């Protein structure tokens, strides 16, 4: 998997979803749902950018390519699950989608913890 390309695409998607929220959803969502959407965009950007940075680390010898693959996979899975569930919750107003969100949060935590472990092992 080309994690650099996947991360760059996730960042492009983050820009598109942020613009969609700012233009198409402004005034359509109440303050709470807009804050949920904005939180999704923030976490989307932070973790997609993190995955991009991690994808480049094997080139510097900071971590192995295998470790980078696992970290990037977890971070981008977190973007899909955590942020995706928040986007859907905000747009639909169905609060039951919040039950899925912690799975994505666990993926984020696991990804960052795995990065720490890769640094320790190196």
Polypeptide structure, described:
The chain has 122 residues and is mainly alpha-helical. The protein has one domain (3-121). 84% of the residues lie in helices and 0% in strands. It has 4 helices and no strands. The chain has helices spanning 3-25, 31-60, 65-92, 101-121. The model has no long low-confidence stretch (mean pLDDT 97).
Radius of gyration computed on alpha carbons:
15 Å
In terms of DSSP E residues, the strand content is under 5%
Helix vs. strand class: mainly alpha
Mean pLDDT: 97
Labels describing this entry:
single chain; 4 helices; 0% strand
Give a short summary of the structure.
The protein is mainly α and 122 residues long. The protein contains four helices and no strands.
SSE arrangement:
Layout: H1 3-25, H2 31-60, H3 65-92, H4 101-121
Helix pairs in contact: 1-2, 1-3, 2-3, 3-4
